[in-house]
What we know:
By secondary structure, the chain is mostly helical. Helices cover 80% and strands 0% of the residues. The longest helix is centred in the first third of the chain and has 38 residues, at 33-70. The protein starts with a helix and ends in an 11-residue tail after the last helix.
Amino acid sequence: MKGQNKLFIAIIIALLVGVGIGGIVHVKYPENAEPFAKNIKLLGTVFIRLVQMIIAPLVFTTLVVGIAKMSDIKMIGRVGTKAMLWFISASLVSLFIGLILVNWLEPGHVTKLPIQDVSSADELLKSSKSFSMEDFVKHMIPKSLFEAFATNEVLQIVIFAVMFGVALANLGEEYSKPVVKLFDIIAHAILKMVGYIMWFAPLGVLGAIAAVVATNGFEIFKVYAIYLRDFFFAIAVLWLVLLLVGYFILGNRLFDLLKRIKEPLLIAFSTTSSEAVFPKLVEELEKFGCNSRVVSFILPLGYSFNLDGSMMYMTFASIFIAQIYGIEMSLGQQITMLLVLMLTSKGIAGVPRASLVIIVATCSMFGIPPEGIALILPIDHFCDMGRSMTNVLGNTLATSAVSKWEGQLTEPLDKI
């Protein structure tokens, strides 16, 4: 754990240094803020791209190996059913928490936001108009495995890997053993790479934070103080619910789990990318004692179907925009909106800024001006920090819980 603690401390230092450097540039050299942000953001880009480089092969190899080793089709169905029940329940709870708190706190009625240039939301408005059932199917079913690999479409890779793994499991050990062994070696080699790549995390954190502070400064927090306060309060409530459920299932082992994932949580918070910590989560969950087959099956699915922080944010932001424009929505309309968000959010995994795209599409459906997304764009980076970290927590708990239910949660590997 010593190496982990060193990395955790390095990330904390990078976070503080990034805020400091960004603040100095914003205050002392405002004319250079834009080019500075553009250049230092490259540090974050390097880290994210290094992680993205290994996600597709890691998801594919671990998932195929996990399913092929299960060999029992009933077990695959049972684990998949438990996972989907968790995902659906957690998504509904997250959406309801966002809905209840945004109606109770009413940030849209008390926040005085400056009029934003709607052109900043043009790209999102265009993206949302093209969203349809056809897009839903296209994002789920791969036209080509190589295309899915090239674009890091996790859901498409998952679908191909599940089918390929099931086929291998049914071939018999004589045929499948060499292939499974090869993929197992590749997966372990990629996990070894994770250790090297994670040491780039502090630089990535420094670049991402310095860029956003240099561009926006600290004044932006004053303008959006109520919105941020209410959103992070809602995130805290969601965390409390998730941790209570986690404690009910895992008992005191929950605290060991949280200690192990503190680093991925901090990286997700700082870089606003839950995807960036996927390889590290695989490693830590296996060390925690989760069955490798369960981890390799559930975690990739969770990244497509179990984004708790993003789900909560969708209802929160949609109703917030309605409040800003003075649009009153009945309880029935809000429940309908919740169900629409529940379905549409499952169809665009891997789309950049997916949460915002879905919010725009949903607002259009319910007569809320979609241009209102421009009001929350300036602060979205900070909200994304909270929801990315929450997504990581939700997927960690889901994987651990299903491992426990399957009787596949052993003692931590580094304590045996």
